[in-house]
Amino acid sequence: MAQKLLRAVDGVDLELRQGECLSIVGESGCGKTTTALSLLGLQAPTRGRILLDGETITAAARIDRKARARKIQMVFQDPYASLNPRETVRKMLETPLRVHGIAEPRDIERRVLEMLGHVGLRAEHADRYPHEFSGGQRQRIGIARALILEPKIVVLDEPVSALDVSIRAQIINLLLELKDRLRLSYIMISHDLGVVEHMSDRVAVMYLGRIVETGDWQTIFTRPQHPYTRALIAAIPDPFGPRVNVKARGEVPNPLDPPQGCSFNPRCPEAREACRLPPLPELEAREPGHLVRCRRVAELPAWQPLTERGSPQPVS
Question: Of the candidates 182, 299, 284, 197, which has an alpha carbon nearest to the alpha carbon of residue 243?
């Protein structure tokens, strides 16, 4: 039997601008996390390049990975599993500074306490262990650990999904504040479109390893064009009234045996015979900065505008 090739991420081409939050959204298994791991050097892409400030960072050599860690860090989804239970907060924050040699010994204590202050923790928290903190406090520690090396880019992997609802707003507000204060750029991996809507400047929608739509957050949430994006937006609970009844049929196809033509066609309520024929549709510009991968996009009915929303802002 011929060996089948699984393309977890296929032809993804994204650009991250300084000071913005780019969110990558989609169902589980669409390739979001694989994309993030490739950026961090934890997953080597078989093809393509990753550029940071015009320099290729795709190489997996140890020295390159160490240099990459100075520029790109990650806040993990689970604050209970991502912290070493045998280390104090002080050691977690001091170790990266010592390993990378970016602070004089006399400055390490100052930088650790300064970073704790940035994330809303106090000096006395430095000598405690993870089990002595709440879930929200642990995520603050995870954020501090990611920022201690002063990276340019922070990858946020479902940063609030493991937290109680009452704590999520605090962490979202903290991340937005730190982005502005420290001039950070975020790549957020999420399936929670409510969080994405509050935090994002731009959004990329993935399906079966490919980008199917990308644009600024207002365009994606108020004028979605791809049927898959419309199904995701319509599924967001809305306290102001029902959204358009758009649903994707069935389940995500087996990525080892993807459909011909448009990969979304077996589930798409707007699919026609032409959608089932190869080749794969290309990403095409609908307006400046708004790209859509759909053959029938010009024929689809207009999207009903949702409740008007302002620019991304802290939530209460």
Answer: 197
Contact residues for 201 (Cβ-Cβ < 8 A; gap 6+)? 17, 20, 21, 22, 216, 217, 312
Q: For residues 295 and 300, what is the distance between their CA atoms, to the nearest angstrom?
A: 10
- Report the length, in residues, of the chain: 316
At 313, the pLDDT band (50, 70, 90 cuts) reads very low
| CA atoms within 13 Å, Cβ hemisphere of 111 | 20
The answer, yes or no, to whether residue 310 has pLDDT greater than 70, is no
Rounded CA-CA distance 31/35 in Å is 6
pLDDT computed for residue 165 by the predictor: 86
206 - beta bridge partners? 211
Q: What pLDDT score was predicted for residue 128?
A: 97
pLDDT in tens, 169-205: 999 999 999 999 999 999 999 988 989 999 999 999 9
What distances in angstroms separate CA 281 from CA 12, 118, 159, 181, 262, one per listed residue?
A: 14, 46, 33, 41, 6
Contact present, 271 and 299 (Cβ < 8 Å) = no
Q: Are strands 72-75 and 55-56 parallel, antiparallel or unpaired?
A: unpaired
Per-residue tokens: 174: 């903290």
Is residue 197 within 8 A of residue 23, CB to CB? The reply is no
Tens digits of residue pLDDT in 116-148: 999 999 999 999 999 999 999 999 999 999 999
Residue that has been written with the tokens 């967001």 in this structure: 236
Q: How far is CA 116 from CA 84, 85, 109, 110, in A?
A: 17, 18, 11, 10
Q: CA nearest 287: which of 231, 216, 233?
A: 216
